[in-house]
Structure formats: C-alpha cells, structure tokens
Amino acid sequence: MNDIKLALLGSEGAGKSAVLVRFLTKRFIGEYASNANSLYRKRLSIEGRLLHLEVFDPCSQSGESRCILEEPVEWADGFIVVYNISDRTSFLNAQNILCQIKDARGESCKGEMDKMDIPICLVGNKQDLCHARQVFEEEGRALAQEHRCHFQEVSAAEDYLEISNLFTKLIRHVMDHLKYRADLRRYSGSKSMAKLINNVFGKRRKSV
Ligand SMILES: Nc1nc2c(ncn2[C@@H]2O[C@H](COP(=O)(O)OP(=O)(O)OP(=O)(O)O)[C@@H](O)[C@H]2O)c(=O)[nH]1
C-alpha cells in the first residue's frame, strides 16, 4: 500500500479544516477546534491502487512564521494552500507560503525539481461569499501559473464534488512525483554503480 502525505496550509479562518472535513466526510461542519495540529488518516483507492492518505492540518500560519511551516514542508509529499476569496490578506499570505515551499524544497533538491513540479494545489475557498469578494479568480489563477501549481476556487460550505476532484488530482500528481523521484534515485544509483565498476575494472583491463 502506498503512503501519501499532504499538508494543508493557509491563514487562520481561511477554511482549511472545512475543506478537509468536506473531503473526508462529505459534510460541512461550521466550527472546528483551531488551536492544535491535527493529523487525519483515510484509506482510498485511486486507479486501482490502495492508498493510505495522511493529511496534516497544522495551526494557522501567518506569512512570517517560517518555523511553523518547517515541519509540514519537510514532512509532506504534496500541499494544499488555502486562502479565503473574501480576505485579501489571506491571499497575500498564500503567496508567501507558496514561495516558502519552493524555497525549502528547492534548496533540499538542488534543481532536480525543475523537471517535475512540487505537487501543490492553490485553493480559493468561500466561493459562496462572492458578494464580498476581495480576490478575483484570475488573480488566483495567475498566482498558480506563476508557481506552476493546480488552482481551484471552491466553497467548503456548498461543494463536495469540486473538493473531492481537487484532492484526487493532487494525489495523482503526488503518485507521479514519488515515482519520478524513485526512478531518479534508481537511475543515479545505477549510474554511480556503473562508474564504480568502470573505475575498478576499466583500470585493471588497461594494466593487463
Ligand atoms: N461562508 C463560508 N464559510 C466557510 C467556508 N469554509 C469555512 N467557513 C467558515 O470559516 C470559518 C473558519 O473555518 P475553518 O475551517 O475553521 O478555518 P481554518 O483555516 O481551519 O482556521 P484555523 O483552524 O483557525 O486555522 C468557520 O466559521 C467556517 O464555518 C465556506 O466555504 N463558506
């Protein structure tokens, strides 16, 4: 069984727990405890493969709180970055969080990520509050394009299908990404083994 680890990031009150609970239970529950980190687990099947999904819903992150971000950024295979379309500050914070993920992952992967994007979905939540909209859909889409990630506007209060689809799309991307990284490791492993064999036996052959 494959393990898939996702982290939900975003401003306080953006609706991270609401989005996640909608996906896990198909329900919208108005209020959630927000002062603790939570880890949710679910088994699901995608493309005939049984998956063990873990989703980390940490305490809210403000743009400056790098240390709070460190843990989920190191741990997760993929990210859902949530902002509230009726709160511009949450959008600016999402922008910061996207940069921080890229910075952290870029440093640890030394450029290899250029060939395959980190699995991230930028989510504009509370679409039902469009009368109080402060962030245009085009702005969300443009930010996602800039960071080469998926984008979706949703309403945790009203939608299930769109939220389910975005999780499925992201999990597929994570599966491809994990396979790509495993292939890369195998390839670089076999390349260094070939180099080693060549160094040992190649030199010996010359001296005969
Ligand atoms: N109108 C509307 N309200 C929503 C929606 N999603 C969440 N909310 C409300 O927004 C508030 C915050 O939702 P949470 O899911 O707790 O937000 P959070 O990002 O997890 O917040 P923290 O736990 O504080 O980090 C709650 O009162 C929810 O009922 C939505 O799609 N539409």
Automatic annotation (TrEMBL):
PROSITE patterns: RAB, RAS
Signal peptide: none
The keyword Iron is assigned to this record: no
EC number assigned by the record: 3.6.5.2
Gene3D superfamilies: P-loop containing nucleotide triphosphate hydrolases
TM stretches of this protein: none
GO-annotated molecular function: G protein activity; GTP binding
Keywords noted in UniProt: GTP-binding, Hydrolase, Nucleotide-binding
Tree of life domain: Eukaryota
SMART domains (UniProt xref): RAB (SM00175), RAS (SM00173)
Enzyme class: hydrolase
Catalytic activity: GTP + H2O = GDP + phosphate + H(+)
UniProt record similarity statement: Belongs to the small GTPase superfamily. Ras family.
PANTHER family: RAS-LIKE FAMILY MEMBER 11
Record's protein name: small monomeric GTPase
Organism: Oncorhynchus mykiss
